[in-house]
Q: What sequence folds into this?
């Protein structure tokens, strides 16, 4: 009888250990190595002074990744290289992306966006540059600079190809700011948050004015390249990010990075 009880106890112990091992193995198996491709677009996504990924979108993704068992690796590159990585399967997520042009042909946009982004015209303070909302008339009259790979909307893409368009393409927004304050251009185009962040960083925020109305307001997303490994997890991501947006941690991020 004692031997029978001992055998049963031993069998129960083995079963418990096996169950725990299975649970542990399953948990580990569900952890995904996730490659995140991004350009630097502060305050949404950037490398900070410690050369670590930072920004509003980065911190949101880091918060959501805990729910989804994603282990994130961030890869920062110029935008066209980010696009190349997405098409060739070298990244699983892209950030941050506007739903423009042919992007949906090689990536999936989730329902949930990170932020509503305003593209604006910025002029030097005191300079007689006016914008009525007629973009064509403005581009015919004034010299404008913008980031080389920046897309605004289809109307702007059409105008920029016209022979009368006076555009200077730059590799970094800092170049456009310097050109503006040196009177080499009349205005530059950038999203309002990135422009304000860079101007504040350079101590030049009080030397410019944002023209009204905005060129457009459009949501920016973290997207899922079709050639990556996460395209089947879009719905899970949507559920996780909507839950995260209800947390106090998310509200603190809004205050820290966006000021509201």
A:
């Amino acid at each position: 009888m004692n031997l029978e009880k001992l055998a049963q106890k031993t069998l129960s112990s083995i079963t418990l250990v096996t169950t725990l091992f299975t649970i542990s193995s399953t948990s580990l198996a569900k952890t995904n190595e996730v490659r995140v491709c991004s350009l630097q677009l502060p305050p949404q996504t950037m490398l900070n002074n410690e050369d670590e990924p930072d920004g509003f979108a980065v911190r949101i993704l880091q918060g959501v990744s805990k729910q989804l068992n994603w282990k994130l690796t961030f890869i920062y590159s110029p935008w066209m290289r980010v696009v190349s990585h997405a098409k060739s399967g070298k990244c699983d997520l892209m950030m941050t992306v506007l739903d423009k042009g042919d992007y949906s042909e090689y990536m999936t946009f989730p329902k949930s966006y990170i932020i509503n982004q305003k593209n604006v015209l910025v002029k030097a303070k005191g300079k007689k540059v006016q914008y009525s909302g007629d973009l064509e008339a403005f581009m015919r009259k004034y010299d404008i600079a913008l980031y080389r790979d920046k897309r605004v909307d289809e109307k702007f893409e059409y105008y920029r190809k016209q022979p009368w368009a006076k555009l200077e393409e730059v590799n970094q927004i800092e170049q456009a700011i310097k050109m503006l304050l040196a009177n080499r251009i009349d205005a530059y185009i950038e999203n309002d948050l990135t422009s304000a962040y860079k101007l504040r960083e350079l101590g030049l925020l009080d030397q410019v004015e944002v023209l009204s109305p905005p060129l457009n307001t459009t949501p920016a997303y973290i997207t899922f390249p079709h050639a990556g490994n996460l395209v089947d997890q879009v719905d899970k991501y949507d559920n996780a990010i909507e839950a995260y947006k209800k947390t106090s941690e998310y509200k603190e991020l809004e205050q820290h990075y966006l000021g509201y």
Remarks:
- The chain has two domains: 30-115+219-258, 117-217.
- Confidence is low (pLDDT under 50) at residues 10-29.
